[in-house]
Specification:
alpha+beta; single chain; 313 residues; 2,3-Dihydroxybiphenyl 1,2-Dioxygenase, domain 1; five-stranded antiparallel beta sheet; 19% helix; four-stranded mixed beta sheet
């Protein structure tokens, strides 16, 4: 026995399935119109370009869809499509993608059964539940364990305390390239994604290094495009460096942010701003040189946005 989900739409089936293919991955294998089906002769002219059967294959799962006549259509209700995703980062990506022009009923958050759970109704009216991770589970991956061990000798370090509060909801990765050069192990702390974010903030810690970077989601996710190199700023003391770092982190997690890409003749420049009560204010930082291969934009400027992770009340 195999269970599949069959969704109904009021003329938007094809657009919805193109959207789901982009958000969820998988592959559309069927997109059959009424006009090309055996039902063509019995179908009203205005419905012949609509979809009688669509299928999207997601691993071993199938999502099906159909357009139905206006008077017979009822918006989706009484159910949710539940996606159980192993990788928390993928859960964040999918939740953010499905939230585009949709309605978030419950932001992605930790519950008593999962480290990541959220509810969103997408722009086509389909209700989704996104579930990932088991709440209360120990940090099992070697990178997180090594990072926690590296914090243990510094129980009074404000940065260590901040990151420990975030674990295990964040993802820790070792910086294999050790870039920029540091005097010890360095780690990347990927912050959770708020719904609708176009980029992810990452903290770089360890070996005397403290940076904040941002990277676009999707094809360019592996490459950051804005960063604040605190270890290069010449702070006279560790305490002042830590305070400046935490002040910057508090800005990016408690305020809406936006990053502007400015296209030049041979390269691109980027700046990050946060939204304050007095309007948008620029954060310090420099463009990463590796972003000479930034996304190509036709216009001279482009804005990328991210809502606050923990909005101030």
């Amino acid at each position: 026995m195999k269970l599949s989900v069959h969704l109904t739409f009021n003329g938007q089936c094809e657009a919805a399935f193109r959207f789901y293919e982009r958000c969820l991955g998988g592959k559309i294998v069927t997109m059959l119109t009424y006009g090309n089906s055996p039902m063509a002769a019995q179908t009203p002219i205005e419905l012949r370009e609509k979809i009688v059967h669509a299928t999207l294959i997601l691993g071993d799962n199938t999502l099906a869809g159909v357009d139905i006549v206006d008077k017979e259509y009822d918006p989706a209700k009484g159910f949710f499509v539940l996606l159980d995703i192993n990788d928390p980062r993928e859960a964040e990506r999918v939740f953010g993608a499905l939230s585009e022009n949709g309605t978030v009923q419950m932001p992605l958050q930790e519950t008593f059964w999962a480290t990541h759970f959220g509810v969103v109704v997408d722009q086509f009216g389909t209700p989704w539940e996104i579930n990932s991770g088991r709440a209360g589970s120990e940090v099992k991956d070697d990178s997180s364990r090594r990072f926690l061990t590296s914090l243990d000798p510094h129980p009074d370090d404000t940065i260590a305390a901040f990151v420990k509060r975030l674990l295990p909801s964040v993802i820790v990765e070792p910086d294999a390239k050790a870039e920029p050069v540091t005097d010890g192990p360095s780690y990347h702390i990927h912050l959770p994604l708020p719904a609708g974010a176009e980029y992810r903030f990452t903290l770089w810690l360890g070996g005397g290094e403290k940076q904040i970077t941002a990277s676009l989601l999707g094809a360019h996710e592996a490459t950051y495009f804005w960063h604040m190199p605190f270890e290069q700023a010449g702070f006279p003391s560790k305490e002042q460096l830590n305070k400046a770092f935490l002040d910057a982190v508090n800005l990016i997690v408690h305020h809406n942010t936006r990053i502007e890409q400015i296209r030049g003749l041979f390269s691109n420049a980027f700046k990050c701003e946060y939204e304050s009560a007095d309007g948008w204010k620029r954060m310090a930082g420099v463009s990463a040189l590796r972003w000479i291969n930034a996304p190509k934009i036709a216009e001279r400027k482009r804005l990328y946005r991210s809502p606050a992770l923990f909005p101030s009340t």
